[in-house]
Amino acid sequence: MSVQPRPGKVLCVGRNYRAHAQELGNQVPAEPLLFLKPSSAIISDGQPIVLPAVSGQVEYEGEIGVIIGVRLRNAGEEEAARAVRAIVAVNDVTARDLQKTDGQWTRAKGFDSFCPIGEPSSGVPALDGLTVVTRVNGEERQRGHSADMVFSIPTLLSYASRIMTLEPGDVVATGTPAGVGRLEVGDLVEVEVEGLSRITNTVVGPG
Ligand code: ZN
User: Fold this and answer.
1) Ligand 1 center to 64 CA (angstroms)
2) How many angstroms does the Cα of residue 6 sit away from the middle of ligand 1?
3) Which percentage of the chain shows pLDDT scores above 90?
4) What is the whole-number distance in angstroms between the Cα of residue 79 and the centre of ligand 1?
5) Structure confidence by residue, pLDDT tens digits, 147-189
6) Considering the entire predicted model, what is its pTM?
7) How far is the CA of 13 from the centre of ligand 1 (A)?
8) Is beta strand 94-95 parallel, antiparallel or unpaired with respect to 62-68?
9) Contact 5, 169 (CB under 8 A)
10) How far is the CA of 92 from the centre of ligand 1 (A)?
């Protein structure tokens, strides 16, 4: 496991980059769109992403993740920003077909191995200066900048902390930029928050 101990929750944000919302035909939400991934989905560097037999369209979503270092409840944005302990690369692997048919996202985003998380960064740089890059078989597919988020990292953490207490060790994945796409058996997919954290996984078939 790259994130020790296993976090109590992995909180995720949908449609937090305009260009990604548009590529899937969605509007940018008026408030952050939150969902959870089960911590049982977490895998570390080098472990395989397993395509489930019930999906025909599994996609990568490279994301900037943050690890919470201090408990946050009803926090303002400055307090929230100070509570970030580390940055991690996250791949919010998604069964896109099931996401559409189910109407909610628990199954589509919750399969075992659907949450690769890289090693935590040793420091925390400016939260509005982060870049996330996704490569498949060495070819760049996504490049996003935290400055282009619809809701900034401090805004997301403050908002979330008014709904659920964010505990030390919790991971918050802050949404994926444009360029999501399908993973096939044999692919090597890498998400990197430049200079800070990286996660690389191969894709294997079911069972
Ligand atoms: Zn995502």
Assistant:
1) 10
2) 19
3) 91
4) 25
5) 999 999 999 999 999 999 999 999 999 999 999 999 999 999 9
6) 0.96
7) 6
8) unpaired
9) yes
10) 5
